[in-house]
Amino acid sequence: MTSDAAPAGTLLALDFGGTKLTAAVADLSTLEWRQQASCPTPASGAQSREAITALAREMLTPSLPPIAGIGVSFGGPVDAARGHVVHSMHIPGWNDYPLAAGLSKAFGAPASIANDARAGALGEWRFGTGGARGSLFYLTVSTGVGGGLVIDGEPVEGSSGLAGEVGHLTIDPSGPMCSCGRRGCVEALAAGPAIGREASRRIAADKRVSPALAALLAAQATLTGEDVGAAAAAGDQVAIEVMTTAGSAAGHAIAAVIAVANPDVVAVGGGVTKSDGVFWTSLKAAAIGAALPTSTSVVRAAFVDTAPLYGALELARRAVCN
Question: What is the rounded distance in angstroms from the CA atom of residue 88 to the CA atom of residue 108?
Answer without folding.
Answer: 26
